[in-house]
Amino acid sequence: xxxxxxxxxxxxxxxxxxxxxxxxxxxxxxxxxxxxxxxxxxxxxxxxxxxxxxxxxxxxxxxxxxxxxxxxxxxxxxxxxxxxxxxxxxxxxxxxxxxxxxxxxxxxxxxxxxxxxxxxxxxxxxxxxxxxxxxxxxxxxxxxxxxxxxxxxxxxxxxxxxxxxxxxxxxxxxxxxxxxxxxxxxxxxxxxxxxxxxxxxxxxxxxxxxxxxxxxxxxxxxxxxxxxxxxxxxxxxxxxxxxxxxxxxxxxxxxxxxxxxxxxxxxxxxxxxxxxxxxxxxxxxxxxxxxxxxxxxxxxxxxxxxxxxxxxxxxxxxxxxxxxxxxxxxxxxxxxxxxxxxxxxxxxxxxxxxxxxxxxxxxxxxxxxxxxxxxxxxxxxxxxxxxxxxxxxxxxxxxxxxxxxxxxxxxxxxxxxxxxxxxxxxxxxxxxxxxxxxxxxxxx
Length: 444
Fold this sequence. Notes:
It is built from 15 helices and no strands. By secondary structure, it is mainly α. The longest helix has 32 residues.
């Protein structure tokens, strides 16, 4: 048993390693905010597709397809990376694919609907698929009792990146979607690609990753399929993980749908200008920075499950407020609550998954978390929102359906046993936190 005196005085096993890991969060959020959340979302709807409800449908379809494909391949590749012990290689391939296709979005103009969809789908698969391998580094960076803080640092750094991206892009969007300003709007896509590439380089250069002797690609993939099949077969032995993954699947659907359609809702239902939308998202990102840090500390204080419950209650309030809101000022208040909740729910969820994950299977289980549950969940919500908006002509009705995902997710989460109590017990007895992850039998 480890004595309390031997517990490290710092939550970080290596501050430099943690920093370059969080810097990747700074890098990839340039894509999430300028491509997924604001710039390209509105450009695709208004210019490429050229229609309101029709634009919602094709945008929702593109997001759904990219998430579905990611959900299919992520668990296999996650398991393969565990087998290969070289996660950086997989992360690099996905990152480069996203960066290249994001830059090529510059050449997509009015009427190029399917070209624009294809480039976005590949770029989003690269972005979302890479997160599987990125998240899988978390358990090796620090002790389990500090997962909440480190996860919060990562998301906070990401939201700083989002805020910086928005501030740099604001001058490019000053002219809106007027014909003489479309060049600047498309230039923002190149900016997103450049920031993604530049600030991700430190991770690839300096983050340590275990290596194994070289095997051919077919060995990686064959091992990946085999390990995923074994995990599915034996998932009933990890009942607590299965319960959490199901709850996460549902409530994360709501979160991703809000992110994908927030700017579109603000523009169409509340008549926000492009400049006002950028300011709104800057406020959201700033509040998300605070939320990530505060909820990160709260997670280590009361446990990730209780923290997620608090954030889901906030999300229900956000959806209800968005349904009834009629003025822009109140929507800014809703945006602050949404931003704070977004940082907290994502950070606490990643922490809970890290605590539940068995050793030596981090990438494989995070493949299920980020892939089958994280990405596949977005297939339902985004498609449903786009379809309802097009068929009914009412974005408010589509918004109301999002609340159902949060309510069901909250109910399912009540059946998940939080390992936080065992973590606190170990700390009180001088073991310094969790010394190992739960075994299959212990995870029941």
